[in-house]
Design a protein that fits this description.
Order of helices and strands of chain A: EEEHEEHEHHHEHEHEEHH
Strand content of chain A: 15-25%
Number of helices of chain A: 9
Shape of chain B: flat
Low-confidence stretches of chain A: none
Low-confidence stretches of chain B: none
Largest sheet of chain B: none
Mean pLDDT of chain A: 92
Number of strands of chain A: 10
Helix content of chain B: over 70%
Number of strands of chain B: 0
Largest sheet of chain A: 6 strands, mixed
Oligomer: heterodimer
Mean pLDDT of chain B: 86
Distance between the termini of chain A: 32 Å
CATH architecture of one domain in chain B: Orthogonal Bundle
Radius of gyration of chain B: 22 Å
């Protein structure tokens, strides 16, 4: 969709994070981090465990309540008070409907079939007519290779299948951007590939994505921009060729050598 | 003793039409089931509100609910029934009289349902609170992340997901409420035990009538078990131990 990288500056901003801070009690996990994802961008956030990368992602849709800073989704600032708590529940719910979130542990609703998972939010929140929602869901399931599994319950799927279904569920709400929170970390090694292939296909079609990942090789291949977080600050960022090919900071060099 | 004539005499006493007392016993059973169903419904409604209130409510809500569950669970049901039935009826009537209205007679069924419902609600609050906490947080998070409102999350996600964990406790509460209806005999309500006692007192056939009451309670419990087993299989759909 946005192959022409020279036109990057003209593309509208999909997600902007400005000076985001987050504390759990007295422990400050994020110490003022910023990020801009324009439409079509794939931003990868990398870092060691405890670096705050998942927290940063989860603050974007307020699954974690920030302690300070500013979040803009589709150019619209999320209303929040001085303490960082959202103040307009309806606005937040509306903005969340434009973000497709994929979790490390899939989080499919276990009391619903795969198809029911996909149409739940379209039918009950977005008020899409059911036949239309079912049709969209079937198209998405075919895309992630799960057309045969629409009537199955999540407990009867492999981890890779569950994650692909979860990606389809996130796509089913027609999101403007996708948020991936370590989507392959809970998978057996042999199942990682099938999930990455789906994510890569989404990147290739120009979807806006923010991806927290441990898969360095994958991040290098799909990302337009890589952010390296360490102890709640952005230690280094830039295009993947720079971050992976010519890391500047000693910490990033050490991190990259430790993860291979 | 155990010859045919004693047995047939017992059966005559239990016959449906007079001089048998069968109709009275069945009427008592009907009242027992009616009160149990009503109180169970009230209890589950109060319990659902109570459980969500305790988990997600503000400090004041949580304190009030804590007071409710502590008091009701600490005081014997019999005492609660006497307090709620006589004291509350009296208060209502004094209020009515002072406002110039006539004294009213609160129907036994309504009072029984209310009293036992309040008791059930306290226990159900704790049963359902535990069940809600058993719902994996990630599934609730997924619903919130896609913009579901809190009410919709509760209705579409949390309640159905907690059911498998709640049903054993809810089945227990049902068993307890069917038997607690017997306590209403103290306020003169004609449920199964009261009807049996009257029949036994009149005919002096204590063994026959109390055995009959016991058998009817047992039958009610066996039927209930079947119903709950079906509900549990239905609610566990999607899990490997449940039905599909």
């Amino acid at each position: 969709m946005f192959d022409d990288k020279t036109a990057k500056a003209q593309r509208p901003v999909a997600i902007r994070v400005e000076g985001l801070r987050k504390s759990f009690g007295s422990h400050e996990v994020l110490k003022g981090v910023s990020l801009t994802a324009r439409e079509g961008d794939v931003v990868a956030i990398i870092g060691g465990s405890g670096s705050g990368k998942s927290t940063m992602l989860r603050c974007i849709n307020f699954l974690e309540t920030p302690s300070g800073g500013q979040i803009e989704i589709g150019g619209e600032a999320v209303a929040m008070n001085a303490a960082g708590a959202p103040t307009d529940r309806r606005q937040l719910e509306r903005l969340r409907q434009s973000l497709g979130m994929v979790f490390q542990s899939f989080n499919l609703w276990t009391h619903m079939t795969v198809l029911e998972n996909l149409i739940e939010v379209p039918v009950h929140v977005l008020k899409t007519p059911r036949p239309q929602a079912v049709e969209t869901a079937r198209t998405l399931l075919a895309r992630v290779g799960l057309a045969e599994k629409e009537a199955a319950y999540p407990a009867f799927l492999s981890g890779g299948q569950q994650q692909r279904a979860a990606i389809a569920r996130a796509l089913a709400i027609g999101p403007k951007a996708m948020l991936f929170d370590e989507p392959t970390s809970a998978l057996d090694p042999e199942l990682v590939g099938e999930v990455l292939a789906v994510i890569r296909a989404l990147a290739d079609e120009g979807r806006t994505m923010i991806l927290v990942t441990h898969e360095m090789k994958f991040a290098r291949e799909v990302a337009d921009h890589v952010i390296y977080l360490h102890n709640g600050v952005i230690e280094e960022e830039g295009p993947p060729s720079a971050v992976f090919g010519a890391p500047q900071s000693a910490r990033l060099k050490q991190f990259l050598s430790s993860v291979g | 003793m155990a010859d045919g004539s004693a047995l047939s005499a017992s059966l005559d006493l239990l016959a449906y039409s007079p001089p048998g007392w069968g109709a009275n016993l069945l009427r008592g059973l009907g009242n027992t089931v009616l009160i149990a169903l009503g109180a169970y419904g009230v209890g589950m409604f109060l319990g659902t509100l109570g459980a969500f209130g305790k988990l997600y409510g503000g400090p004041l809500t949580r304190d009030l609910l804590g007071l409710y569950t502590t008091l009701v669970r600490a005081i014997p049901e019999l005492v609660l029934i006497l307090i709620l039935y006589f004291a509350v009826t009296d208060l209502v009537n004094q209020a009515l009289l002072s406002m110039g209205y006539e004294r009213i007679q609160i129907s036994g069924v309504a009072a029984g349902i209310m009293v036992l419902g309040v008791v059930q609600g306290a226990y159900a609050t704790e049963v359902l609170r535990g069940a809600i906490q058993s719902v994996p947080a990630g599934q609730i998070e997924a619903a919130r992340a896609m913009g579901m409102s809190p009410l919709l999350v509760a209705w579409r996600i949390t309640l159905p997901l907690m059911l498998p964990a709640a049903i054993p406790g809810m089945a227990n509460l049902w068993m307890i409420v069917t038997k607690d209806t017997a306590l209403l005999a103290v306020v003169g309500f004609n449920e199964l035990v009261q009807e049996s006692r009257q029949a036994a007192g009149t005919t002096k056939a204590f063994f026959t009538f109390f055995m009959a009451a016991g058998v009817l309670f047992l039958a009610m419990s066996l039927v209930s078990n079947q119903v709950f087993a079906r509900i549990e299989a239905w609610a566990s759909k999607g899990t490997k131990r449940g039905g599909i």
